[in-house]
Amino acid sequence: MAQAYKAETDSGGSGPERQGSRLRRLVDGWRGDPGIWRRGLITAGIAVLIGLVMLLHAQIPNGVGNLGSLTETFLPWLGVFVPVLLVIAVVRKSATALIALLLPVIVWLNAFGGLITDKSGGGGDLTVATHNVNADNPDPSGTARDVAASGADVVALEELTSSAVPTYEKALADTYKYHSVQGTVGVWSKYPLTGTKPVDIKLGWTRAMRTTVDTPKGQVAVYVAHLPSVRVKLDAGFTAGQRDDSADALGEAISGETLGKVVLLGDLNGTMNDRALNAVTSQMRSTQGAAGDGFGFSWPASFPMARIDQIMVKGVEPVSSWTLPETGSDHLPVAASMDL
Questions:
Q1: Looking at residue 264, which CATH number applies to its domain?
Q2: Is the omega angle on the peptide bond into residue 192 within 30 degrees of 0, that is, cis?
Q3: 62-81 pLDDT tens trace
Q4: pTM of the prediction?
Q5: Strand pairing of 231-233 and 237-239?
Q6: Less Cβ around it within 10 Å: N or C end of the chain?
Q7: Which candidate, 270, 263, 265, 212, places its Cα nearest to that of 246?
Q8: Does 268 fall in a domain?
Q9: Which residues of 72-107 are buried (b: 16+ CB within 10 A; e: fewer)?
């Protein structure tokens, strides 16, 4: 019996040794295989192509179907292919593919690595939120209450319909003493609003506005905008011409702002990477990029793939930025706190 027990114990103790032996055999198999440099050339080529697209995305022309803007909208998602290619490279025992994968890994980490860390802080003089509430929202009252529950001092809503405005006004009245609706966008504030007016973004109807919020720490110019939607069509590509023209007009209005502290809230139907928004993004900072936790994707609400709902600032310091829980809209609300 003692011998039998000893045999079992010895057998169990050999587990680590067998695992080590398998690892050594794997390494020895790679070391002695001259084909590791010849196999996986297609995988290596795909890895290099993905890396170059991420590195040189600004050189992709927009002349054909706005291909450059389309690529930039979903640019972070190119990193999803890296682990897939890694598995293929390991299975194929391709040293060439493994080395080639270093290019997309390095480029992705350089471009987006800072977004996967939590840069949010505490406090802040002003908290703001913005939400495209969706014209077909089945529960506007619930949506309004959800956004107000964020604790925001200033709330911007986009895609307001004339029939739904009274519902939002009633639901937000207890929390926000001041508000103004211009066309299909509106601002609700705990602090007084002055100098409120529509902003012409070349659409023929009002989808943008500007107001001054008189906070205890001074005046802040708040812009709210809902830029035109973009579409992906087989015959026309990424149709964004109207959105691009409106972005230029919005950027021009913000550049002419006389107040030093400026906040932009809204659905810009584009990401910070999209060159078509340069007129705006070149002069303002994204709160998510500066003080957010993760990518902060806001659309579509059921499976967020892009942050097209933006909070951007000039002359103030972002403290934190985050997305709010799903409402009855197809967008997620986003919020941010900042020091004035």
A1: 3.60.10.10
A2: no
A3: 777 778 888 998 999 999 99
A4: 0.85
A5: antiparallel
A6: N
A7: 270
A8: yes
A9: bbebbebbebeeebbebbeebbbbbbbebbebbbeb
